[in-house]
UniProtKB/TrEMBL annotation, chains A, B:
Transmembrane segments: none annotated. This is Cytochrome P460. Residues 41-170 form the Cytochrome P460 domain. It comes from Archangium gephyra.
């Protein structure tokens, strides 16, 4: 019994290492990729504006929401769900009072964007790849580095609140 | 004397009507145009983002500042003064709390863009045409209609405060 138990343990250990490797080698890269977006979509800073927003509390930022061409086209046409390949980007900046502007206005009323804050976030539409999270892959990059999966798992549960708008909070500003 | 006076009055009146018409016919349209921008620059809603800001007080808006290609190129390169043809657009929206977002966050912290508010404003760089106002023509359109000159005359005196940045308040957000 002792010997059999040992052999089973060895077999299980080897299988545990070898089998996933074999599967990874057989399947295309997409299948092996994590369910979250780990690469920054190129050129996003040149995308067009969807809307702006401001968060107080711990976030304390002012933000712009940009969209790639597919996103802007869908927003303007009122297309729901968003088409495959849609990407929405959320850029956030420190929310800071502008002493310079306030002097000109003669009263404290002006807030501007400070340095980037709270990372850059993305929603990428791929109904097959991200089927488990409403067809959207979620991403956040802090100083260019992708957030870990534990953080990204918190995205979808909140976005489910706006399932009727294909899980997208931001509305288009004309 | 009476007759001469009458004749002078007639000549002056006729001249007052006829002479400007003759000048208008001879000179290009630009020369006869007012010193403020009276036509909405086409396609501005597709321009790229410069930055975002928020104004409290009477304005109570949240805003995006967009730039045409020349503006974005100059901002990114740190070019001052801005080149001829630069146009900067300021789009403002009602600053409204988002009940929808606050429910998801579980606390009141989220503000979004409501309907357009406080007009759409532009600064157009043309050093010759707008020489009297630092080389920038100012414009505001409320529901597509240009603001009157009295309102537009209030732009330049404030912008003089940032003469060292070529009269432009907005800084580029990365």
């Amino acid at each position: 019994m002792k010997r059999i138990g040992l052999w089973l343990a060895v077999v299980a250990t080897v299988a545990g290492v070898v089998v996933p490797t074999a599967i990874e080698a057989q399947q295309p890269t997409e299948e092996a990729a994590p369910v979250f977006v780990k690469k920054i979509p190129p050129g996003y800073r040149d995308w067009r504006l969807i809307t702006v927003a401001q968060e107080r509390g711990e976030l304390n930022d002012i933000r712009a929401v940009l969209g790639n061409d597919k996103a802007i086209k869908a927003y303007r046409a009122g297309t729901l769900p968003f088409p495959e390949g849609t990407i929405i980007a959320r850029l956030a900046y420190d929310y800071v009072p502008s002493e310079e502007n306030n002097k000109v206005f003669g009263r404290p009323q002006s807030f501007v964007a400070g340095p980037p804050k709270n990372g850059v976030q993305f929603m990428v539409k791929d109904s097959k790849k991200y089927a488990a999270t409403g067809g959207w892959g979620y991403a956040q990059f802090d100083d260019g580095k992708p957030a870990d999966d534990a953080m990204l798992k918190t995205c979808f549960p909140c976005h489910e609140a706006v399932k009727s708008r294909d899980y997208v909070f931001s509305r288009y500003s004309p």
